[in-house]
Amino acid sequence: MLNEVEVFSLVFILVSLFALIALYKRKRFKQITSQPLSDEYKQLLFARLPIYKQLSPQLKADLEHKIVCFLHTKQFIGCDLTITDEIKVTIAAEACLLIINRSSSCYAQLKWIYVYPSVFIAKQAQRNEYGIVSTKHRHLLGESWANGKVILAWDSVESGMANFHDGQNVVLHEFAHQLDQENGNANGAPLLYTKDGYRIWSQVFSEEFKALQQSLAEHKTSLIDRYGATNPAEFFAVVTELFFECPEQLAQQHAELFGLLQNYYRLDPRSWTGIE
Ligand SMILES: [Zn+2]
C-alpha cells in the first residue's frame, strides 16, 4: 500500500511524463512541418497544376508550407488504385489553396483521403414516407464526411486540375465541405467567429440561394451551377469552386457573395487567374 507521499510522487512523475511526451510531439511536428517541400514535389506541381506557377512568391511559399503539413497529417488510401506522389501532392495542393491564408489548422478533423480511379458508387440509406428503409446507390466524383474522410475519383481530380477556369473542381468542392463541417454538420455557413459575420453571411447566401432556385425554375441560365441549388451546403461548395476558378465573373455578377468569400478565404484569386 502506497503512502500519501508516494502517491503524490507517482502522480507527479506521470503528469511530468505526459507533459514531456506532448512537448516532444509538438517539437517533432514543428520540425517536420517546417521542412521545405521537396524539389521533386515542386516539379510535379509545376507540371500538373497550372495555377501553381501563377501564384505570387509569398503565396507559393505559404501553399508549400501547408502542403507539407497536410501530407504529414493525412493518410491517403488507394481504392483499386496505387497512391503515387503525384496523387498525394496535387490533391494536397488543391485542398490547401482553400486554407492558404487562413491561420486555422490544416483540416484538423480530416484523417483519411480515399482515392478511386474513377466514379465510385456510394450506398446511402433512405427512408420512404412509410418509414421503410432502403439502400440507394449513387455514382459520385467525390464525397466529404464529417468523420475525418474525403473520397475522390482521381480522373475527376485530374480534369479539374487541367482546366482551372471552368468552375468545376471536385477537390475544391469536397474540401469546402470539410471547412463547412468544422462547426458540425455542413449547412453552408463555415466558422465565421462573429454574430454579425453569421448574420450577413446568412442574409447574402440565402438571397443568392433562392435566386438560383428561382432562375432554375424559370429555365434561365446562371453562372452558378444548378447543383448549388440542391441545398445551402452544396451552394457554398459550388460557389467556392467559382470563387477560385472564375473569380472575375463571380465578382462581376455576384459582388456581395464574392466579397464574403474573399473575406472568408482571405484571398483575391483575381490576382492569379486568367493566364494559360
Ligand atoms: Zn457536395
Topology overview:
Elements: H1 4-33, H2 39-48, H3 57-73, E1 75-78, H4 85-97, E2 112-116, E3 120-127, E4 133-140, E5 142-144, E6 149-153, H5 154-162, H6 170-180, H7 195-217, H8 232-245, H9 247-253, H10 255-265
Parallel strand pairs: 1-2, 2-6
Antiparallel strand pairs: 3-4, 5-6
Bound molecules: zinc ion.
For the secondary structure, the number of strands is 6
Helices and strands, in order, run as: HHHEHEEEEEHHHHHH
Runs with pLDDT <50, length 5+?
none
> Looking at the structure, what is the overall shape?
globular
Q: How are the strands of the largest sheet arranged?
A: 1-2-6-5
CATH class: Alpha Beta
CATH H-tier superfamily: Collagenase (Catalytic Domain)
Helix content: 40-55%
Describe, in plain words, how this protein is organized in 3D.
β1, α4 and β2 form a beta-alpha-beta unit. 53% of the residues lie in helices and 12% in strands. The protein is α/β, with parallel strands linked by helices. α2 crosses α4, α3 crosses α4 and α6 packs across α8. It has one domain: Collagenase (Catalytic Domain), CATH 3.40.390.10. The model has no long low-confidence stretch (mean pLDDT 88). The structure holds zinc ion. Zinc ion binds next to α6 and α8.
In a nutshell, what does this entry contain?
By secondary structure, the chain is α/β, with parallel strands linked by helices. It has ten helices and six strands. Helix 2 (39-48) packs across helix 4 and helix 8 crosses helix 9 (247-253).
Task: Please tag this protein with its features.
Collagenase (Catalytic Domain), binds zinc ion, alpha/beta, four-stranded mixed beta sheet, 276 residues, globular, single chain
